[in-house]
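Most newcomers find our protein records easier to grasp once they have seen one. Read left to right, the backbone structure tokens trace the chain's path through space. Nothing more is needed to start thinking about how sequence determines fold. An example says more than a description, so a record of this kind follows:
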Amino acid sequence: MQKIYASAISFFLQSIIHFRLSVIQKHVDFCFPEKTAAEKAQLIKKIYKHFGFLLVELISLPGKELDASRIIIHGEENLQKAIAKGNGVFVMGGHFANWEFFAKAFLDRGYIVSAVSKKVKGKAGQTFLKLIRESTGTITIPKKNSIRTILKTLKKNQVICMMMDQNMITSEGVFVDFFNGSCCTSPGMLVLAKRQETAILPIRAYRDEDHYHMHLEILPEMKLEYPSDDKDENILHNLKRCNKFIEEAIIAYPDQWIWMHKRWKSRPENEKVPPINYK
């Protein structure tokens, strides 16, 4: 039944109401200029198919026990090694597959997971997110004024999930290369990781072809690099590495990212022509 519902939703979103279709098309054109029109059309169809499955899963998640066999974790030893250091752990990745499911997989293995999140618009959206997070056992850290809570969580040697693929307003981020243009990216995780000596573990998620089973790869610690005497240059250097990691994950699993999100929306003040025109 899940496949039937997901197919119906994806068809409705793409072909009937054209949900964010122009945004997705612009993003695919921008990131994959080498693809033919037919290849792009096929990719967009797969993007909506994935989004259909995601919506069905999220809608049915509150109050339902998640089948643990759906989640296959690779590289758990990297997480155990990072936790053994005693300074908390940042897991760094993007919105791939069904990111909400993976917190439940961590919880089932005895890890306490928090996620730093922007405030969802509307009371209905906030309530729905609350229900999802309660179902997965995720502790939500509101992004606004979050530093104190993050520091307390790290001192407890717990895991904090940082999604690095979200557009930031210009006052909260710096512009870093991402595909064929720059996007505004938060440096907060890097600043805190250096200050607290907290390990950063890149994570990569993807679905099997059956769209039911999902994999989470926990990669070895990303050691911060300091090639310059300039602090800001070092932050920029490491942010580029984070964005490059997410870019490579998108290239590997292009249908499983949230292409409807306006990642390149914020722009530098002096920029004359934005890389993507969202108007």
